[in-house]
Hints:
The chain has 41 helices and 2 strands. By secondary structure, the protein is mostly helical. Helix 25 runs antiparallel to helix 28.
Amino acid sequence: MALSDLPVAGAAEEEAEDEALARGAALEAFGESVEIRALLGRLRVVHGERAAREVAEERFRVIMDKYQEQPHLLDPHLEWMMNLLLDMVRDKTSPTALVHLAFKFLYIITKVRGYKVFLRLFPHEVADVQPVLDMFSGQNPTDHETWETRYMLLLWLSMTCLIPFDFSRFDGNLLTQPEETRVSTMDRILRIAQAYLAVSDKARDAAAVLVSRFITRPDVRQRKMAGFLDWSLCTLARSSFQTMEGVIAMDGTLQALAQIFKHGKREDCLPYASTVLRSLDGCRLSESNQTLLRKLGVKLVQRLGLTFLRPKVATWRYQRGCRSLAANLQLSAQDQSEQKPLEVPPDSDEDYDIPDGVESVIEQLLVGLKDKDTVVRWSAAKGIGRMAGRLPRVLADDVVGSVLDCFSFQETDKAWHGGCLALAELGRRGLLLPSRLKEVVAVILKALTYEEKRGACSVGANVRDAACYVCWAFARAYEPQELRPFVTSIASALVISAVFDRDVNCRRAASAAFQENVGRQGTFPHGIDIVTTADYFAVGNRANCFLVISVFIAGFPEYTRPMIDHLVAMKICHWDGDVRELSAKALHNLAQLAPEYSAAQVLPGLLSMALSSDLHTRHGAILACAEVTYALFKLAVQRDRPVTDYLEENVVQGLRQIHQQLWERQLYRGLGGELMRQAGSATAVVTGVSGHILIMYRSTMAAAVCWGSHPFCVKLLALCKEEIKKSKDIQKLLSSIAVLCGMVQFCGDVRKKVLLQLALLLCHPFPVIRKATASRVYEMVLTYSDVVAADVLDEVMAVLSDTAWDAALPVVREQRNRLCDLLGVPRPQLVSKPGAC
């Protein structure tokens, strides 16, 4: 049996996500429109009955959730659904319970479709402002059962703020009575927004949207913007992120400020940007353990930075001439080679005065790239890309250099991940000029194989995934002639990640990036053949990648050696035992495609690793030595050549000494001894190199060992008894039964002692052990005819097969003693101490 045909622990079992094929949404239209219309029409009837109301709500939720992945299918039906529900809200005779139920249904639709799309459908005429404001008078911000009502009312109010009339026209004469003044519409809206920015439910998010629409109105900006910003900064100053109330207040305020600086005009927000930035620095949000606060802080910082810089499209950015995939595929390789590189125009705004706050903003964004949470790093990366697009060329290049500093091995995996995200953002925006590609590609190739051991596992999967995103972005951003010097290295790295990465999401990301490069660049060697083989579904099974797809791709000479080198350098010493075993098997397959290289370069390197001080390296290297040697031996047999044509004498000698050196260094003992014994037994295949010598003496050796007085069998029995003495390990006991049944081949006293030991196991306290022993002994009697005399053979077989060995011990003991008499073995005697009989 070939060593590579042996089962690998864990490799034969597909991962949970690999067993089920990923199925995309296959819906073509909103098929439940009739049912939904009838369901909404019954709300006036069922709202008073709790059971019927809950059934209707659950049914509506189930139908809507089906369209989470294809929410655009709801677009033709959103308007009539909203109108049906708002009719109930506007009806003065509608009970309060019906109004809350209608808003709950509106929220479910908003959740599926997204509030930005659904918001535009709200009625926003002049006549809608006062009714919506009046509805807030009956709301209780602390009622957690009706938060959907307040959330939808705030969104509706934010839409009514878009009416092109001054809010003062709604007020008329505010002096209704002498010495009594009504609150203006503008103040009412502002008070509502401020109140709901501090609530603990989702209405806080809608309040931030309301603020952004309200404060940025021309009439409100002149009167209320400065006051609201002062209130917001005071709220941030007196709130602490160490208390729950402080976190809620800061969250709502930061959301509101970020929305204002996003939707407000630059000239309106610029006078306040420096003040807000200084106040934000004083909050020290980077020290908070609240992910959302740090994310909002980074988001607000980048919005402030964009406010400092004039909005413009950088004239110096790299622009790919043709971004059409269809047009790119029509170009032949000759046409692409004849295209001239695009020249980057000089920056016309080099003398542009950069505000002082920009440096602080970029510094905070660079720190955000190293944050411990992905959402913060992702927000910082997008901020870096947006800011660099408004900077002069020299300053933007300095930002790129600072991002590249994240790829130091002194940095953590968080910095590497943030750096990859930032490079992808810069690349897809054309802000990474071709002159920087050499440095960038070098660090991305390292990131594609980045992995660090942490305790019993490792980190780095997110870094490798982000590096694949960078390669995907580069495929879309650059002309083929710009990436041509790096095609070989990028293609090999992506293939290696798609085939040999431990994590399925990284393999699929690398496959997608490789496919994008094949389509956009058209210069990857054998790209179409590889894409059709290593597609999204094919790379889902790790064993299939290591043992099948790798062989196909390694058949192309451009990828053979890089794949072999990666296995030897990165995967043979991997912390995961399954990966090491799969890598050894993969080397077995690939060695036959490059036998000379494997014999001259790979095997000597593996032999030097076989005695490493690191357990994982030692284990993987020994397994790989066995696999590569056996692969070369099989290849020599197929080609009718001596194996010495591939293996030099010093390599053969090194293989023979592995076991002896491990024994002398006592590496078969201790915590790693089990792995070393497994690997040492695997190297037995190397005896195929000189196996003919063993065959000559096999019969003589076997005859000598089978004598009962030989020390081998005596010591083996003693060791076996010592291992199972007082043991409760079922697996160990079951293994010992198999060993003992095999030892009955020895003659003399050893056989009687083995039968006595088996008799003891027939009365073991564990029923499963008794049954397994009886079954094994039955097979043993059939296999070895000289163990039982012919005149009692039938009776022995009847006792073994007819006895219920899982019955009570007194019953079993009687049958066991009868069996001992038939076999000529003394009956075991009961002792006072508890234990096996």
